[in-house]
Amino acid sequence: MRYFLIIWFILLFCYPCSHALAKSHRQNFLLAKELMAQKLYGVAYEKLDDISKDYELYDYVLLNKYYCLTQIGELKKAEEVLNIFIENYKGYPTFKEAYKNLLNLIEEPNKKLKLIEDYLKIYPEDKNIIFEKANILKKIDESEAKILFKKLFLEGGTKTILAYREIEDFLSVDEIYHTALKMLKNNDLQAIELIKRLDEKNPKVRYLYGLYHFKRKDYKRAIEYLNKLNFEESEKILALCYLRSRDYENFINLVNNFIEKKQKGIYDLIYVLAEYKRRQKEYESANYYLNFLLQAYPERSGDTIFGLAWLNIRNGKYERAKELLESILESNEVNNKDKYYFWLGKIEQYMGGKGGIYFEKLSDKEGFYYLRLFPYDGILSDRENKKNNFLPEKVSKILKRLEELEAVNMKKEGKEEIKFFYNDLEKFPDILAKYLLKFENYHKLVKLGTKEGIIYYKYPFPYRDYIITYSKSIGVDPLIAVSIMREESHFNSQIVSEAGALGLMQLMPLTAKKVGIVQNKSDLFKEELNIYLGIKYFGELLKKYNKIEYAIAAYNAGENAVDSWLKNNYKDVDEFIEDIPYRETRNYVKKVLRTYYIMRNLYKVNPSEMADAS
Predict the structure, then answer these.
(1) Using CA atoms in the order 78, 82, 83, 85, what is the torsion angle rounded to 10 degrees?
(2) Which of 19, 99, 372, 405 has a Cα at 20 to 30 A from 162?
(3) Is residue 607 over pLDDT 80?
(4) pLDDT tops 50 at residue 5
C-alpha cells in the first residue's frame, strides 16, 4: 500500500511539473529565437541560458547560445559552449555543425590541426575539412599539403578545381586528363579549366573539348573538335551531335559507316536512323534498318518488332502490323505485354472493330496503357498501416526530437534530422511517412512509397492550397498540375535540371519571365511563385491546344515541336503520343498521364473542396 502511494504521488505531482517545465523550455527557446531575429543577442542569450540541459533540443540551444555570443564579441565563452557541445553530443545530427563552428573560432594552426585530425577520425570523407587541413599544412609541412591536395584533385568532387589551383604545376598531363574526363562524365563543366591546360593538338584532348561542348549543347562546336577523331566513343558522340544539330546527311553516313565496321553498342543510333527514314516516308529503307537490328541485336527483338509494327501502322498496313505484334507475344520475348495488347486493340479499332478482345488482356493496373483505357477502374491503397506496438528506445527518442522540432517550427532542421536518422526510421515506413509529411519532405516520401510499394506515399498531394487556388483561377484541373509537378521534380523545390529548368514545375527562366514577373532566377525556388507560374504556363498551352496530351507534350518539348508534330495527320491522340519523335518527351507524356489517372482515383473529391480534404 505504501509503495502504491509513492507511485501515485510521483504521477500526480512530478509528471505535471516535468510537462510544465518542458513547455517553459519551449517557450524560452521560441522567445530567444524571436529576439535573435530582432538582433537582440544579449537578451536572447539570457533566455537560452534559462533552459536546462534536459530539454529535448538542448543541442540546438547550445548552437544558438554560441551564435549569440559570437555576435556580442564573447568569443572565449562561445568556444567554451562549443566544447561542452562536442563533449556531450557526439552522434547527433548537429555535431558536424558545432565542430565546424569551433574550427572557425580557433586561429592557432597547431591547435586547429589537432581538432581537424580528431574530426577526420569520425568523418574521414569530409572533403571541405580535408581541404582546410591542406591549407593549414601549407605553412607547416608543404609536402604533406600537396599530397592532400592531390588526393582531393584525383578523387573529384566539390574541391577538385580549388585543389588543382594549389598544385597545377605538380600534376602530370595524364592525371589532369583523367580528372577532366571524370568531371565531364559527371556533368561538371568546370572541367574546362583543366582542359585549357592541355595541348589542343592531342586527339584525346580534342575529344575532351568535343565532349565539353556536347554537354553544353553547342553541337556545332563539338563537331569541330570531334570530326576526324577515329576512336569509338568520340564517333558515337559525333553521331549524336549530327543528329541533334539536324545534320541528317552526315548522321546517316556515319551510322552506315558504323554498320560497315560492325561496330558494337549502336542499337539506339540505328533505331533512330530507321525512325528518321520512316518519317521521311522512305519505308523500304526504314524496313531494311529494322530488319538489320533484328539480326544483329536479337536480345532487343521486342523493341525492334514493335518498331516494324509501328512502321506498318503509320503506313496503313494493319494486317502486317497485327502479325508482327502477335508474333512477339507468342515468342514470350517481353515481360510486360500491355503495350502490345493495347496496340493490337487499337489496330482492331482502326480496322472498324472494337478491340475489346485485346484490351481485356491488359493486366498492369498502374501502367500507362491500362489506365489509358480504364482511367476510373479504381486504384486502392495496397495495404493497411502497420501498428507499431513496440519501438526501440533510439527511435522513440528520435520521434520526440521530431515532435519538438515541429512544435518550434524548425522544418528545415526536421528534414535534416530525418535524413540523418533515415536508416533507423525506414524500418517503420508508416511512422517515417508521417514525419516526411509533417516536415513537407515530399521528395523523400515518393522515394519511400516507391520502395515500399505504398501508393498513397508514391502519389501524395502536396502544396494543396496553392495548387487548388491557382488551378481554379486559371482553369486547370489541379490534379493535372500536381501530376506535372511530380514528374518534373518529384516535389524537390530546389532541383535544377541539366538544361537549367528550376524548381517544382521545372521552369526555364525565359519561359517564366514570359508568363509572369520574375526578378531573378532564384525567385523560381520560391514554392508558391513557381507553382503559380507553372500552372499559368500550362493553362496557356491548354488553351492553345485544347487537349491535355498536346499541352503536356508542349510543356516538355516546346510549342514549335508540337506544332510540327501535329502536321502528321494522326488518327487519334494515342497515335500522336506513341509517335512523338523525342523519346524523353514521349516517356514524359506517358508518365504525367499515368500519374494523373492514378491521382484521379486516389483523390476522388470535388476539385473545389480539395483544399479541405485530408
Answers:
(1) 140
(2) 99
(3) no
(4) no
- Mean pLDDT for 573-580 is 97
State the pLDDT at residue 389.
Answer: 62
The pLDDT tens digits for 83-98 are 999 999 999 999 999 9
Contact criterion met (CB below 8 Å) for 552 and 588: yes
Burial of 137 (0-12, 13-18, 19+ CB in 10 A): buried
Share of the chain above pLDDT 90, in %: 82
Residue 497 pLDDT: 86
Residue 502 has phi, psi (to 5 degrees) of -125, 145
Kindly state the cell numbers that stand for 229.
577523331
Per-residue model confidence (pLDDT) at position 8:
41
594: Cβ–Cβ under 8 A, 6 or more apart, which residues?
A: 366, 367, 368, 371
What is the C-alpha radius of gyration for the chain, rounded to an integer number of angstroms?
30
pTM: 0.86
For the residues 199-215, what does the mean pLDDT come to?
Answer: 95
Neighbouring residues of 24: CB distance < 8 A, sequence distance ≥ 6: none
Residue 240 CB coordination number (10 Å): 18
Contact in structure between 63 and 97 (CB atoms under 8 Å): yes
Q: How far apart are CA 45 and CA 60, in angstroms?
A: 13
pLDDT, residue 418, reads 96
Active site residue 488: yes
At 611 the pLDDT is 35
pLDDT of residue 378: 58
DSSP states of 242-258: HHHTT-HHHHHHHHHHH
With cell 498551352, the residue in question is 541
CB atoms within 10 A of CB 332: 9
Distances (CA, A) of 62 to 72, 78, 81, 272: 15, 9, 7, 61
Are the C-beta atoms of 455 and 449 separated by less than 8 Å? Answer: yes
Answer left, alpha or beta for residue 157, where phi above 0 means left and psi between -120 and 50 means alpha.
left
d(CA 296, CA 305): 13
What pLDDT score does 565 carry?
96
Spell out the long-range contacts of 359-368 with Cβ–Cβ below 8 A and sequence spacing 24 or more.
361/337, 362/338, 363/337, 363/338, 364/336, 364/338, 366/455, 366/594, 366/598, 367/336, 367/338, 367/594, 368/590, 368/591, 368/593, 368/594
Selected catalytic residue, list 235, 488, 527, 549:
488
Using CB atoms within 10 Å of the CB of residue 327, give its burial: 0 to 12 exposed, 13 to 18 middle, 19+ buried. middle
Least confident of 137-141, 325-329, 492-496, 608-612: 608-612
Please name the residues in contact with 44: beta carbons below 8 A apart, sequence gap of 6 or more: 32, 33, 35, 36, 64, 68
List Cβ neighbours of 392 (8 Å cut-off, separation of 6 or more).
Answer: 424
- The answer to whether the beta carbons of residues 154 and 175 sit under 8 Å apart is yes
What pLDDT was estimated at residue 429? 93
Q: b/e map of 477-513 (b: 16 or more CB within 10 Å)?
A: bbbbbbbbbbbbbbbbbebeeeeebbbbbbbbeebbe
